[in-house]
Design goal:
With 541 residues, this protein is an all-alpha fold. It is 77% helix and 0% strand. It is rod-shaped and about 160 Å long.
């Protein structure tokens, strides 16, 4: 299965190879490629040595030296799924990883098939191959096809050396495969001269394609090694570091010349600056970079293809993401609880305020009753028997006498004949009326003060009303105290709510960052309780 091959290839890719592949796909764009190419061209004009793009890859790879292989493997895998906009999954089982890798290959294949008519024709001729095999073969064929002319320009000695390496490889194969290759190439024997002749007459791309068709991908190791040896002749500017730290396959494929052949020279891609998915063009190249070293391994070479570290790295990210969602849920529940408590307290405070208002109204009514009773009693009774302060009694008599006097003044008719006298008389009555209103007002105020004396006394005068007022006042005192306690509690809840809301904002930001760093987490619907429980159940297994 292609998906399983890609998955195992990702997990077998390690060290510098892994970091260069990741840097090429995830840390590079066509702008980097074109810019580096332009800088290299200017450097050549000034007779300076320059490998800007290789240097770019080297720098990006160096930045990842302290990062573990499994972290980069997961990032590379997720970047591929992100570029293809595949729905994220929980990668807790090898089968789940294989299935997603299969989706990566299928989607990449469809993109390439849709954009490249030459690939369509090529793929139809390789119907017996898997989609992954077709993409790899097509790109390697494209590379060597575009280098055919350069191969023919090699010296006789160099051509013989190439032929010797190819012959040596063919002879290492089982006799059945040797026989098939000879038949395909139209030669009777496996000699350097005949292989060289086949390369010259049929082209190196045809010979190499024939060998791969019969022997498999392992031949590409030999092919890229030859490119290594004759790199300068083909214009492949590979730095010394590439020779010593990278496999030949990855070093060649990461070279800008190779990328330009595939992206531009081979006719497989059209550069469109308006295209928002230019990175899609690198997908088949990246997949080939990942899988070809794995597919080219000999059977006796042990390859690390364990899923364990990959899964554990994804689990680590998922656990952090899950934990953030769990904390967010707790915060949301706490927020709802606090809001509920705040609403409860606000409702209780509203009730208390209403109760206080009711008691205040009751007091007002009872005071008015005492006021009326006191007013009536003062008119007909003896003021000395009433529970009133002596000073107020004196003041009452004074005001009452003054009111009577003013009444007399107002009611007295002075028969003035002169206009001036009439005016003076009218003005005097107006002044007396104003004074009367003032004294009546003072009297009412004094009566209200007397009401308070009655309330604060132990007299039997309006005892029932007085006791009712006192009970209401006690209730108000109790309500005010209760109100103070609840207001303090309310302030505490509001303060806690503010903290919880800030924590929610922090957690949501953290979740967004985690989703940005690990593509596909947002597709797991951990914000949905039912989905979260199901996923959690599956994870616990």
């Amino acid at each position: 299965m292609d998906g399983q091959v890609l998955a195992k290839s990702i997990m077998s890719l390690q060290g510098k190879d892994l970091r260069v592949v990741y840097a090429l796909f995830s840390k590079t764009n066509l702008g980097n490629l074109v810019s580096s190419k332009a800088k290299d061209t200017l450097a050549k004009l000034s007779k300076e040595e320059s490998n800007h793009f290789i240097n770019h890859l080297e720098e990006e790879a160096e930045k990842l030296e302290s990062v573990s292989d499994e972290v980069i493997q997961v990032d590379l895998f997720l970047d591929l799924t992100k570029q293809l906009q595949l729905t994220g999954k929980k990668y807790l089982l090898p089968r789940e990883i294989d299935e997603q890798c299969d989706a990566i290959i299928n989607s990449s294949y469809e993109l390439l098939y849709e954009k490249d008519k030459k690939f369509q024709a090529f793929a139809q001729g390789q119907a017996h191959r898997t989609k992954l095999q077709r993409m790899i073969n097509y790109q390697m064929y494209t590379l060597f096809k575009n280098l055919d002319d350069d191969f023919n320009k090699l010296s006789d000695q160099d051509m013989r050396e190439i032929a010797s390496q190819v012959t040596k490889y063919i002879k290492s194969l089982p006799e059945e495969k040797q026989k098939l290759i000879k038949e395909k190439l139209g030669i009777d024997e496996l000699t350097d001269d005949l292989i060289r002749k086949a390369i010259v007459t049929s082209s190196v791309s045809f010979v190499f394609a024939t060998i791969v068709e019969i022997s498999g991908f392992a031949f590409y190791t030999t092919a890229t090694t030859l490119l290594f040896k004759f790199a300068s002749f083909f214009g492949l500017t590979l730095p010394f570091a590439a020779y010593t730290t990278l496999t030949s396959t990855i070093a060649v494929i990461a070279n800008p010349l190779f990328l330009f052949i595939l992206l531009f020279g081979g006719g497989a891609y059209i550069v469109n600056r308006q295209n928002k998915s230019l990175k899609n063009n690198l997908l088949p190249i990246t997949i080939m970079q990942i899988t070809l070293p794995y597919l080219s391994q000999t059977s006796n070479l042990q390859v690390n293809e364990s899923y364990q570290l990959f899964i554990e790295e994804w689990k680590r990210r998922f656990n952090r993401y899950k934990n953030s969602w769990e904390q967010l849920r707790k915060a949301e529940l706490e927020r709802e609880m606090l809001i509920s408590e705040i609403r409860r307290l606000e409702n209780e405070l509203h009730i208390i305020t209403k109760q206080i208002k009711n008691e205040e109204n009751s007091i007002k009514i009872e005071k008015n009753k005492i006021f009326s009773a006191l007013e009536k009693e003062l008119e007909v009774g003896d003021i000395e028997t009433l529970p009133i302060n002596d000073r107020k009694k004196i003041k009452y008599r004074q005001i009452h006498e003054k009111i009577n006097l003013l009444h007399q003044q107002i009611s007295t008719n002075n028969f003035e004949r002169s206009i001036i006298g009439k005016v003076k008389n009218a003005l005097s009555k107006m002044e007396s009326t104003r004074e009367l209103r003032k004294e009546k007002k003072n009297l009412k105020q004094l009566l209200r003060e007397m009401v308070e004396d009655v309330i604060n006394s132990n007299s039997t005068f309006n005892k029932v009303k007085r006791e009712s007022i006192l009970r209401s006042e006690e209730s108000i005192t109790k309500f005010i105290k209760e109100k103070g306690v609840k207001n303090k509690e309310l302030d505490q809840f509001k303060s806690q709510l503010k903290i919880v809301k800030n924590n929610e904002i922090k957690l949501r930001k953290e979740i967004r960052i985690l989703e940005e760093k690990t593509y596909g987490l947002e597709h797991l619907n951990l914000n949905n309780t039912e989905s979260f429980l199901l996923l959690n159940k599956g994870y616990s297994k």
